[in-house]
Specification:
The structure is a homodimer.
Chain A lengths: L1 H8 L7 H9 L3 E4 L4 E3 L7 E7 L1 E8 L2 E9 L3 E2 L2 H5 L6 E4 L3 E7 H10 L2 H26 L2 H11 L1 H6 L2 H7 L4 H16 L1
Antiparallel strand pairs in A: 1-8, 2-7, 3-6, 3-8, 4-5, 4-7
Helix pairs in contact in A: 8-9
The first copy, chain A, binds a DNA duplex (30 and 30 nucleotides) through helix 9.
Chain lengths: ~190, ~190
DNA sequence: TCAAATCGTTCACTTAAGTTAAGAAACGAA
DNA sequence: TTCGTTTCTTAACTTAAGTGAACGATTTGA
């Protein structure tokens, strides 16, 4: 589990054993049960999440309907917009599977960054990289049809289609569950020919 | 023009007059004519852009068709994904209007960051903020219909609808130009009732 | 200035997604 | 295990976006 964390960090900075111990001593690992709500709409949270094992999702409730917009799995990090903007959260974060997460607090991060200035560098690199990746994802979403988006997902994150409920996948793809069912049937039909 | 830059920077860090002079002495302002291509697909660029006046856009060419995915206007910054990933660019950047830009090079930024460590802090804050903002934009795009997206744009960036060609706006909204025309006619029809 | 290209709109037609409803399958809690 | 809920799929119908084509209006450049 710790390996997952340190091989993630190693992508950005190199740590000494002392530094590794210091991080572990913060005791940030948390086991979270499937279905647990980590953040609710309207809350003022300062927590960021890193998925060591499992899957979490972000969703809105609009007109009483759940709209899932993102999934985070192993080796992925999430700092909710409300932490950055210091305003109440517009969305929910919940646990799709039993998961092990690293949950860090932004106040605590300020502290850690003072002790280990390296961390600031990592955070900068990480957020620049995530910004660029997300830009590409957004552009692909804009330029593709729902069917193309599904086929894309099948290529890039085939695990998600297995581990996540269809109705959550549907809104992640920007469509209704019924449309996803139909779209999958259509693809299957095509592949038979 | 310099005021635009310094009031932007002031949102993140405070600068002394000496620091301001140092920045100006780098001589990074560029006047760019409408239609100019700043970055081509396949190029390995290290340039980032900050719009002081005017408008630039990013677009792909897919199946021979132009797909515009983003616009950047006054007080907005753009670091292309290719600068971060150090791979050839997947898209084009071009000038929508005669513009005045600040164009900085990532090699040069490393230099500036060494002289003024403050800058690293600004870059981190900026990219974290942009990441959060873009996340919200992406989520709104996913959860809204084309018509809602257009009405949203009308609220949030009404200037864009005036200053940008319709066919570029259409792909920015994720639809075809004909659909945008139809959609606008539909809205007009509704408002008459 | 004039011809060519580009752009925005409209129309008729096709295709796919939204909506409403119903039933089967899977899941969870008592 | 069983009852009730949630989830997934299918179907019929509605609505909106994609497609191909045509038409002026504008812009561009030779």
């Amino acid at each position: 589990m710790q390996d997952t964390l340190f091989s993630f960090i190693a992508k950005y900075i190199s740590l000494t054993d002392d530094e590794k111990h210091a991080i572990l001593s913060l005791d940030l690992f948390r086991a979270v049960k499937k279905g647990t709500t980590l953040l609710k709409e309207g809350q003022n949270s300062k927590d960021s999440y890193f998925v060591l094992k499992g899957c979490i999702r972000t969703h809105y409730i609009l007109d009483g309907e759940e709209k899932t917009t993102a999934f985070y799995t192993e080796m992925e990090a999430l700092t909710p917009p409300c932490v950055i903007s210091k305003t109440p959260s517009e969305y929910y974060i919940s646990c799709v599977e039993d998961s092990i997460l690293l949950i860090s607090n932004s106040d605590m991060e300020v502290e850690v960054n003072r002790k280990f200035p390296k961390f600031d560098i990592m955070c900068r690199k990480l957020s620049e990289e995530l910004l660029a990746k997300q830009r590409i994802d957004f552009d692909e979403f804009k330029t593709n049809s729902p069917e193309q988006r599904y086929l894309n997902l099948l290529q890039k994150r085939p695990d998600l289609i297995q581990r996540v409920p269809q109705h959550q996948l549907a809104s992640f793809l920007g469509i209704k569950p019924q449309s996803l069912s139909r779209l999958r049937a259509r693809i299957l039909e095509k592949s038979k020919e």
